[in-house]
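yo, Response regulator is done. seq:
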Amino acid sequence: MPRLHHRTILIVEDEYLLACELETQLREAGACVLGPVGSLQDALDLLASGQHVDGAILDVNLQGAAVFPVADMLLDRDVPFVFTTGYDDLVLPARLRQALRYEKPLDIAVVLRRIRQLIEG
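structure:
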């Protein structure tokens, strides 16, 4: 299990069971968890509140809304993130195609390892 002590990770995921599992695994890895939030507006509000974020896991489709404005905010702040989705790369706008994308169902350990690597540079 990757160690994420003292790292704040934002979870943006609208599938309740997956969001809970991500939260559990992140906490077990020592992370502080923001969220999970399940809507685009809640994610934008959370980021706008000035909360510190070290990394994020973003579901591409949130109740029919694309998470891309959240990804843009994170890019502007140099915060690493990964996408989770059931869609292929073509759903991502060109500006975001360099981001890592993990297909559902997720191997959560792999996603957490990658988040740790991205945060550590």
